[in-house]
Prior knowledge:
- Residues 36-404 form the Aminotransferase class V domain.
- By secondary structure, this protein is of the alpha/beta class.
- It is built from 14 helices and 17 strands.
- It has a 7-stranded mixed β-sheet, with helices on both faces. A 4-stranded antiparallel β-sheet has the order 13-14-17-16, covered by helices on one side. Strands 1-2 form a two-stranded antiparallel ribbon.
- A hairpin with a 2-residue loop joins strand 11 (266-270) and strand 12.
- Helix 3 crosses helix 10 and helix 11 runs parallel beside helix 14 (398-414).
- The radius of gyration is 22 Å and the shape is globular.
Amino acid sequence: MTATASEQTSGDTRDWAAIRxxxxxxxxxxxxxxxxxxxxxxxGQKPAAVIDTVDDFFRxxxxxxxxxxxxxxxxxTEAYEGARSKLAGFFKAHRDELVLCSGTxxxxxxxxxxxxxPRLKPGDAILLSRMEHHANIVPWQLVAExxxxxxxxxxxxxxxxxxxxxxxxxxxxxVKILGLTHVSNVLGTVNPVREICREARRRGIVTVIxxxxxxxxxxxxxxxxxxxxxxxxxxxxxxPTGTGALxxxxxxxxxxxxxxxxxxxxxxxxxxxxxxNDGPHRFEAGTPNIAGHIGLGAAVDxxxxxxxxxxxxxxxxxxxxxxxxxxxxxGLRIIGTAxxxxxxxxxxxxxxxxxxxxxxxxxxxxxxxxxxxCAHPLLQFYGVPATCRASFAFYNTHEEIxxxxxxLTKVRRLLG
Length: 416
């Protein structure tokens, strides 16, 4: 990160303009206008350090991992396993507690089928919050259908915060698993996961935390949260797509049967039977996304160099600015105003469909997401079929927020 003219905030010595310059895509134009990318909750942009790392792997080191003793195979294996070590350090965990996988969806399915499926029975229940992403709903529905378990729902308040009294009341004796998002991808709500996991553990409930929207935006000490499983997605934290990890307590990994079978996850195979590898490798069948995870390791290095506390503070300032600017627009409704909130704003404009809003904003160079955001039950709670969502990252600027607000005001006039 080079030192150039900076966009600095009060008390912050980091050169945010120079940091932004590390992201090549942010220099492009869309429809003849400078791009304002406000869709980082969907996927984060990639710094040159990550792009160069992936490129270098394919140009100079490309080989399969854990299968060859030649120089390229050794280099690939060391870089891939090095990425596991980097992730472990980033999350204050041990490398043997991290299963590398394609992301949070795979990670939650792994827990559902390898841990929950062999244990659940009729009469058991799985507790989920109203604000869950489909990735933390559908796998549990599939497992419930196969085991006879039921799904229970913990409701939220109108401001988008979790009703903790209702959640605790729902933690009855039949509940065996609690699936909960750390940060809502639609509302930005930050849930008090330490407090919730402590209460769940007291009641003997296993906790599965979806950390997709938390890991890119705040410092995490995963073991200290007190959960049993924690899932992360790499492409939202400046890494390549198809990357991520499941953190799990070692006793769970040791007790879980493999999710997929094939190469790498074994010690010995005979037709009479197979001896499986230790965790986490027993859950990593087949050739992995080697270059992607090496790129994710580079993303972790990049984020670590900036500092996650600084990133969180920067994004809080951007959120405050954007919230103030949007509240000045007539007919605009912000959905999700919880006291503890990450840099996500879901909104609607009176008389306009979310997709029309997003399409017209795109013509102004502003990229936001429209739709249900893989959270149908949450939008049903608010009685809307879709919202627009602006999601911010540390590489966004205050000037972009002003451009966003101006574009939205223009679109509001066009739609009458």
